[in-house]
Amino acid sequence: MRIDVQNIYKSFGGNHVLKGLNLTIPEGKITVIVGGSGSGKSVLLKHLTGLLRPDSGKIIVDGRDIVPLPETALFPLRQRIAVIFQSGGLLSSLTVGDNVALGLVEHRLATRDKIPEIVREKLALVRLEGKDGEMPGNLSVGMRKRVSIARALTLHPDLILYDEPTAGLDPPMAENIDDLILRLSRELKVTSVMVTHDLTSVFKLADTVNMLHEGCIIESLPPEEFKNSRNQIVQNFIRREYHAAAIMIL
Ligand SMILES: Nc1ncnc2c1ncn2[C@@H]1O[C@H](COP(=O)(O)OP(=O)(O)OP(=O)(O)O)[C@@H](O)[C@H]1O
Ligand SMILES: [Mg+2]
Questions:
Q1: pLDDT the model gives residue 102
Q2: Does 42 contact ligand 1 (Cβ within 6 A)?
Q3: Residue whose C-alpha is closest to residue 139's, from 92, 180, 103
Q4: Using a 6 Å cutoff on CB, does residue 40 contact ligand 1?
Q5: Are 128 and 151 in contact, with CB atoms under 8 Å apart?
Q6: What share of the chain is helix, strand, coil (3-state, %, to 5)?
Q7: Does residue 185 lie within any of the structural domains?
Q8: Could you tell me the residue range of the domain that residue 114 belongs to?
Q9: Rounded distance, CA 246 to CA 241, Å?
Q10: Residues 6 or more apart in contact with residue 145 via CB below 8 angstroms
């Protein structure tokens, strides 16, 4: 799935969040979005799923502007997009297997007898073989995040949006999630968009790093070039995040 965001504006009352934002999301690549807290990263992700509509501007998905489409025309698009929320969004009263099966049941994508096999296959993809019968509460935060990724994969998404997938995870677990995101991108060729503060993830995963600042993407570069950007706001961001990471390790 290829997306071209063109000159979008979005305000909530007097709060002007996106102000003529442009962004290209190429097919099959990992596009990373960074920016300060409250800069509008999650708002931008919600525009990509059609959950929020811009006040003006275009969002061109595979050649077609989705902004003027009626709500019902967005359903097929939403089915092609998976969102991995920060919290994981698992239902604590259901087993891991039933959580993974939720989307299949809801969208009637498989008959009842086929479901266990699909669940096992997706759990294997995220390296959680044999965990079908566990309750989410008995898993680590990183494992729960992998379960929510397995659930997303049952819908065969063309686009996966990750909002801070490694936030709150310790470094080994964050690395584990990063490896999974990279593997899914390479093996399944899913287009991926990731919002993150984690510079380790940024430099390991990104094909392009986009910096959101004051409602616009002010820099869009491959990681190495991003690191060496002359833009003062980019440099301040990198310095601040390295500093924050160093404090966490201490
Ligand atoms: N549904 C909404 N209604 C009104 N205001 C909103 C809504 N969603 C977001 N906002 C506002 O838009 C701004 C950007 O919020 P957003 O959640 O996108 O920030 P963010 O960059 O994701 O921050 P963080 O890094 O803390 O997650 C904030 O000022 C927020 O209060
Ligand atoms: Mg956010």
A1: 93
A2: yes
A3: 92
A4: yes
A5: no
A6: 40, 25, 35
A7: no
A8: 88-156
A9: 9
A10: 84, 88, 165, 169, 177
Residues of the chain with pLDDT under 50: none
Q: How many domains does one find in the chain?
A: 1
Q: Which pLDDT value is given to residue 223?
A: 96
Q: Which ligand is nearest to the CA of 46?
A: 1
- pLDDT score at 135: 97
What pTM was computed for the model? 0.91
**Total Cβ atoms within 10 A of residue 90:** 22
- Does the C-beta of 13 come closer than 6 Å to ligand 1? no
pLDDT digit string, tens, across residues 30-49: 999 999 999 999 999 999 99
Task: For residue 143, tell me if it sits in a domain.
Answer: yes
Q: What is the DSSP letter of 171?
A: H
Q: What is the pLDDT of residue 103?
A: 87
Separation CA 122–CA 92 (nearest Å): 19
The answer to whether residue 123 sits within a structural domain is yes
CB 57 within 8 A of CB 34: no
Q: Does residue 48 belong to any structural domain of this protein? A: no
- Residue 106 has a pLDDT of 86
Query: What is the predicted pLDDT for the residue at 89?
Result: 81
CA distance 81 to 193: 11
Write down the pLDDT at residue 250.
58
Residue of minimum CA distance from atom 26 in ligand 1: 37
pLDDT digits (tens, 9 = 90+) for 135-153: 999 998 889 999 999 999 9
How many angstroms does the Cα of residue 105 sit away from the middle of ligand 1?
32
The secondary structure of 115-168, three-state, reads HHHHHHHHHHHCCCCCCCCCCHHHCCHHHHHHHHHHHHHCCCCCEEEEECCCCC
